[in-house]
């Protein structure tokens, strides 16, 4: 179908139009930091060049989460980051695949017709770049997805452990309050009259949804032992002194 | 004659390349900017991503049409579907993960808030309880008297928390100050509690709130929201 021709392969100015468009997009990606300065320093850093727009959207969501943490209102994505996200998407999903795939088709059709490929030209440099880029993205996206999912699961698991530990510490704090008031109260109304001896943990406090608790009271201090229900081999130890102060925290198992 | 027809064909193909790029850039950019820009960046980025996905599907369908042989059509088509599918999966997971992380921040903030409230309310009440019972069996002062010694001028509705800095926004209000019953209540101004419909002490709705009650038998705690 196609024959080798001495005529120009391209429409007049085509290469320059494509090169210019690509250069503009790349320039926007590379130098957008200078063009669209963010009015405020950002807590979540993102790389200068963003290939996948979800990197920016994710960072923005967490940035807004941090603002909410401090009681500040959420902010929209800055103009700089909008351009960065869009530029990355255009390079990855529009410009490079179009140049690569259409050129690939032309070469395949040409080979099928002539049993020989079309000669390499200047345009092939751009095509080669796009081919490398598209193939890199295509190959990288699978491990990126798997790695992101593994990281996500690990983070969830670590957060679940941390939440369980925090909940146990919180309950130990309440046990310590209960112990302190027992220590202060006179024996007539069920207290220890300045002693922890005889303290018994209320049933509602000895087993909760997060842990089981055992207290070992002596006269002037108490040892509290908490074993996690969610992570059976993990436990927290603490002691309460005669002033009601918690101390000597020990974390074992997955809480270590 | 043949050369001219080839040149025209090539020029057509080249023009088509440019047309595809321009169409794709306009389609994706228009989708991105026409989606309402709010404080949530995902809708616009997702919409642009969907537009880019549609564009890529159309491009692949165009590229693998005849006369490309069936084997290559299948190969490119399958690779295209796998790559677009994996990208979409990773994209959705990243969105889910980012929102999860932001939610975790607020959960951590709530845990910190409850902890600060406990530290801000329980120890002063235990001090009052200790002072009250140290009087022995014949008590001259009530719990309220002992409380007022600790917080001179304290009255119902007053904030008895002394801020430790500009950052310290905690308030501990006296809800009730009876001779032998003192109720302290503390709430967050922007951290949501468990029940979104809960009416807070200051009239706000759905904020985290903790309450401590002191009687001569000790301190009781209620996590109200």
Give a verbal description of the structure.
- Chain A folds into two domains: 14-119, no CATH class; 167-255.
- Helix content of chain A is 55%, strand content 11%.
- Chain A has five helices and four strands; from the N terminus they run H-H-H-H-H-E-E-E-E.
- A four-stranded antiparallel sheet of chain A has the order 1-2-3-4, with helices on one face.
- The longest helix of chain A has 62 residues, at 123-184.
- Chain B has 225 residues and is α+β, with helices and mostly antiparallel strands.
- The longest helix of chain B has 64 residues, at 70-133.
- Chain B starts with a helix and ends with a strand.
- The model of chain B has no long low-confidence stretch (mean pLDDT 89).
- The chains are: A alpha+beta (256), B alpha+beta (225).
- At the A-B interface, helix 1, helix 2, helix 3 and helix 4 of A face helix 1, helix 2, helix 3, strand 2 and strand 4 of B.
In short:
By secondary structure, chain A is of the alpha+beta class. Chain A has helices spanning 14-35, 53-69, 79-114, 123-184, 203-206; strands at 211-217, 222-228, 235-240, 246-252. Chain B has four helices and four strands; from the N terminus they run ααααββββ.
Radius of gyration of chain A: 33 Å
End-to-end separation of chain B in angstroms reads: 85 Å
Structural class of chain A: alpha+beta
Radius of gyration of chain B: 34 Å
Distinct helical segment count of chain A:
5
Give the strand order, joined by hyphens, for the main sheet of chain A.
1-2-3-4
- Sheet with the most strands of chain A? 4 strands, antiparallel
Largest interface, C-beta within 8 A? A-B, 86 and 88 residues
Secondary-structure map with pairings?
The complex is a heterodimer of chains A (256) and B (225).
Chain A (H helix, E strand, L loop, with lengths): L13 H22 L17 H17 L9 H36 L8 H62 L18 H4 L4 E7 L4 E7 L6 E6 L5 E7 L4
Antiparallel strand pairs in A: 1-2, 2-3, 3-4
Helix pairs in contact in A: 1-3, 2-3, 3-4
Chain B lengths: L1 H33 L7 H22 L6 H64 L9 H8 L21 E7 L2 E12 L14 E9 L2 E6 L2
Antiparallel strand pairs in B: 1-2, 2-3, 3-4
Helix pairs in contact in B: 1-2, 2-3, 3-4
């Amino acid at each position: 179908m196609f024959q080798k021709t001495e005529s120009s392969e391209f429409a007049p100015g085509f290469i320059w139009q494509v090169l210019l468009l690509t250069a503009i997009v790349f320039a926007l990606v590379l130098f957008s930091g200078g063009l669209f300065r963010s009015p405020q320093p950002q807590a979540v850093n993102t790389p200068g060049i963003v290939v996948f727009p979800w990197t920016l959207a994710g960072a923005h969501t967490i940035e807004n989460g941090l603002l909410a943490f401090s009681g500040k209102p959420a902010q929209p994505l800055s103009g700089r980051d909008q351009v960065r996200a869009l530029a990355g998407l255009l390079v990855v999903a529009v410009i490079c695949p179009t140049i690569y795939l259409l050129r690939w088709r032309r070469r395949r059709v040409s080979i099928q017709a002539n049993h020989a490929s079309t000669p390499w030209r200047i345009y092939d440099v751009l095509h080669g770049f796009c081919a490398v880029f598209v193939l890199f993205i295509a190959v990288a996206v699978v491990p990126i997805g798997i790695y992101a999912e593994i990281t996500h699961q690990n983070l969830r698991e670590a957060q679940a452990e941390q939440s369980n530990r925090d909940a146990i510490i919180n309950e130990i704090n309440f046990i310590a309050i209960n112990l302190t008031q027992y220590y202060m109260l006179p024996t007539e109304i069920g207290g220890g009259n300045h002693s922890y001896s005889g303290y018994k943990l209320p049933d509602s406090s000895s087993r909760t949804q997060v842990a089981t608790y055992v207290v070992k009271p002596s006269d002037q201090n108490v040892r509290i032992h908490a074993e996690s229900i969610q992570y059976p081999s993990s436990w927290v130890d603490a002691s309460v002194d005669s002033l009601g102060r918690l101390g000597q925290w020990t974390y074992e198992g997955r809480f270590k | 004659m043949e050369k001219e027809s080839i040149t025209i064909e090539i020029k057509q193909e080249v023009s088509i390349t440019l047309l595809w790029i321009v169409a794709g850039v306009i389609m994706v950019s228009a989708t991105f900017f026409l989606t309402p820009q709010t404080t949530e960046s995902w809708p616009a980025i997702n919409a642009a991503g969907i537009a880019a996905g549609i564009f890529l599907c159309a491009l692949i369908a165009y590229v693998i049409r005849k006369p490309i042989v069936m084997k290559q059509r299948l190969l490119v088509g399958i690779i295209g579907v796998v790559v677009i599918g994996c990208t979409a999966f990773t994209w959705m997971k990243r969105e889910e993960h980012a929102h999860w992380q932001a939610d975790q921040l607020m959960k951590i903030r709530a845990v910190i808030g409850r902890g600060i409230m406990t530290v801000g309310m329980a120890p002063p009440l235990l001090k009052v309880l200790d002072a009250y019972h140290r009087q022995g069996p014949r008590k001259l002062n009530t719990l309220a008297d002992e409380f007022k010694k600790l917080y001179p001028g304290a009255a119902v509705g007053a904030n008895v928390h002394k801020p430790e800095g500009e950052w310290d926004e905690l308030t501990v209000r006296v809800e009730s100050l009876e001779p032998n019953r003192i109720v302290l209540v503390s709430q967050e101004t922007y951290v949501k509690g468990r029940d979104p419909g809960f009416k807070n002490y200051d009239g706000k709705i759905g904020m985290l709130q903790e309450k401590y009650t002191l009687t001569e038998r000790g301190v009781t705690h209620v996590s109200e929201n």
